Amino acid sequence: MRAGLAASPEVPTKVGYPVGLRRLVVLRREQLNRSLLRVVLGGADLAGFCSRVPEEHVRLLFPDPDGSLRLPVPEGPDLRWPRPLPTSREYTVRHHDPDAGELWIDLAVHPGGLASDWAVAAAPGTRVHVAGPPGGMVLPGGFDRFLFAGDLTAQPQIARYLERLPSTATGWAVLDVVDAGEELPMTAPAGVQVSWVHRGDVPVHPGGAFERVLRSLPLDGGARTFLWIAGEAGVLKPLRRWVRHDLGLPRSDHLVTGYWKRGVADYDED
């Protein structure tokens, strides 16, 4: 089994890391699909960056509206954050290559988004402060199959999970997109079926095609399934009820996380 999936806690468990603050530099940008942009960061400060499990997040820090940049201060293994909190946005650690000195961050681009606008304009050499990761999520072991599902914002995390599954894994990955222009090639075990749900110009909403596809999957039959879903918080409300009440999955066997909420900047479900 690959690194990061060997540990087998009883429930999805966060493992803590010493939390670093790093001043990194943009090495390059890559347009992954119409709406997803990869920013590759590096620099001397990346030394010692900790990445051990599939689900980890960092915060990119930006100047406040008045132009001031307020940064957290290292305090033991953690950071002490000023109040009110500095302007920042949280993103999945898509990939960390210590040998190449690279940290990949994949961002959903949309007009008017703080980090999105920064990423679109960031030329090689642009500097940015990065905090974290504060830890990572370890999944329980002993599952017969997996279901990973989400919208555009969940693509980087789902891609990382799929890459780290054992080659014998089976299950599904279901991704909600506008059309084929938002699809991203996924590297998955042969036994994991990757499906793209095209919703067209209809905004993500509860009860849509994405939810109908999830509810149609053959999740009965006694096989133990781990289910992971992320996306817009309102879309996930009925899916949480479906997972807990209809499927009856115990807390150890699922993780449903709101990555963003319509009309709320820097939404944090925690």
From TrEMBL:
UniProt source species: Kineococcus mangrovi
Superkingdom of the organism of origin: Bacteria
InterPro entries with a match to the protein in the record: FAD-bd_FR_type, FNR_nucleotide-bd, Riboflavin_synthase-like_b-brl, SIP_FAD-bd, SIP_fam, SIP_rossman_dom
Pfam families (UniProt xref): FAD_binding_9 (PF08021), SIP (PF04954)
Segments forming domain FAD-binding FR-type: 19-140
Record's protein name: Siderophore-interacting protein
